[in-house]
Amino acid sequence: MGAMTSSGSLPPATGSSPERRASSRCTRKKCKKKKYVNSGTVTLLSFSVESEFTFVDYIRGGTQLNFTVAIDFTASNGMPSQPTSLHYASPYQLSAYALALKAVGEIIQDYDSDKLFPAYGFGAKVPPDGKISHQFPLNNNADNPSCAGIEGVLESYLQSLRTVQLYGPTNFAPVINQVAGTAAQVTDGSQYHVLLIITDGVISDMLQTKEAIVTASALPMSIIIVGVGPAEFEAMEELDGDEVRLSSRGRYAERDIVQFVPFRDYVDDSGNQVLSMARLAKDVLAEIPEQLLSYMKTRDIKPRQADPQ
């Protein structure tokens, strides 16, 4: 409250406004300097108004999200026939991989328009000649590796477990480069690709993987890595460039495109039940909107106008 006069009323405001004080200063300067005009001017040469678009603006404008799944079939996961294996499934429960695939897949499939998922395995010896492959189609169809929905991916994954031999090494780069090649074909903002890698975290081609991610960071794609099992996942944390921007051979990633999620943080002690699908969904998809927006902004791609209903 303002100070009160002895009579209890507010003091007079005469001469106290900023406008009057500024006018008084100018008058005094004019008296001292005959050539005084003013204290300086500011000229605005140009200005622009930029719109801030949201993830939803692009989805409504027709940007299609395309998910690809890649599953780790290396020997570090343990023999699928043994209860200690991360690929082991009993009549009573899903394997760690199947549970992660089902839980995360059910989240991401809602954002994929055609619900067709190219699905690959890596790190196994595949029939008929037993050669090691780092990007074999789970449905055994090289011409069309897409599976119908997450249930289709899960079915093809279980079939592959019965026909391939878990081996190694654990190479991420081939499947990252595979999706990057697809993403490079359409860069106008109408397509955005997301690669979901499910792994136990033991990676063999770290240098090549970093190179692949740095290259992919200039393309319309993101990578979600879901770690299963008890590993510490230091390598995965490094690939997720939240703290330090990923680099390779002196080149820095144009933007952060990797999100790592340790699946064990979302399941109960038995490893057989997801504690909170809502929390898992939030963390799995946490960085995708911002990563998509960062690509669109660096390329000055604006969302298309949605068709009127």
Biggest β-sheet: count, sense, barrel?
Answer: 7 strands, mixed
- Please report the distance between the alpha carbons of the first and last residues: 57 Å
> Helices and strands: which structural class?
alpha/beta
The total of helices stands at 9
- Roughly how much helix do the residues carry, as a percent range? 25-40%
Polypeptide structure, described:
The chain is α/β, with parallel strands linked by helices and 309 residues long. It has 9 helices and 12 strands. It has helices at 18-32, 55-60, 96-108, 149-163, 173-183, 206-216, 234-239, 277-284, 288-298; strands at 64-72, 116-122, 124-126, 131-133, 136-137, 146-148, 165-166, 191-199, 221-227, 247-248, 251-252, 258-262. The strands form 3 sheets. Strands 1, 2, 5, 6, 8, 9 and 12 form a 7-stranded mixed beta sheet that branches. The protein is elongated, with a radius of gyration of 29 Å. The chain starts with 17 loop residues before the first helix and ends in an 11-residue tail after the last helix. The model is unreliable at 1-15 (pLDDT under 50).
